[in-house]
Design goal:
Layout lengths: L2 H27 L23 H17 L7 H26 L3 H27 L3
Helix pairs in contact: 2-3, 3-4
């Protein structure tokens, strides 16, 4: 057996195994974890693991961010970048606010305050760019 065969064999075995778990694997690998398999619509779901108030708040913020980042791409990298990043930055703000509501570590609370300030300013810059450039 050559070295090439040794490498291809396990890779081929993995590829052959994937179709059997395809839908489950695809759902597990979904970045947001909040799309239903039947209609592709964003749905709020229970957080993985802990079900407490902060975990629910983080799961909801994550779902909102991913829904906001699911933009119609224009082919204009500048426009697509800004539109996606506005939602991404808003997600960071939302998570930072959750830290301020539930978190106790003073250094992380300070970081959350800094994130809110910086991300809000960047969102305003991006919104102004979109307005200036007719988008």
């Amino acid at each position: 057996m050559t070295r090439k065969t040794t490498i291809i064999g396990p890779a081929l075995a993995l590829c052959l195994a994937l179709p059997a778990s395809g839908p489950a694997l695809a759902q597990e690998m979904n970045h947001s974890g909040h799309q239903s398999a039947d209609n592709g619509q964003m749905q709020m779901s229970e957080p993985k693991g802990d079900k407490g108030p902060s975990s629910k708040a983080f799961a909801e913020a994550n779902a909102r961010m991913h829904k906001g980042m699911d933009i119609m791409f224009t082919g204009n990298a500048d426009v697509d970048f800004v539109r996606g990043m506005i939602a991404h930055h808003q997600g960071a703000i939302d998570m930072a606010r959750i830290e301020l509501e539930y978190g106790k570590d003073s250094s992380l609370r300070k970081l959350a305050e800094d994130i809110i300030k910086a991300q809000e300013a960047e969102i305003e810059t991006m919104k102004a760019w979109l307005a200036k450039n007719g988008h």
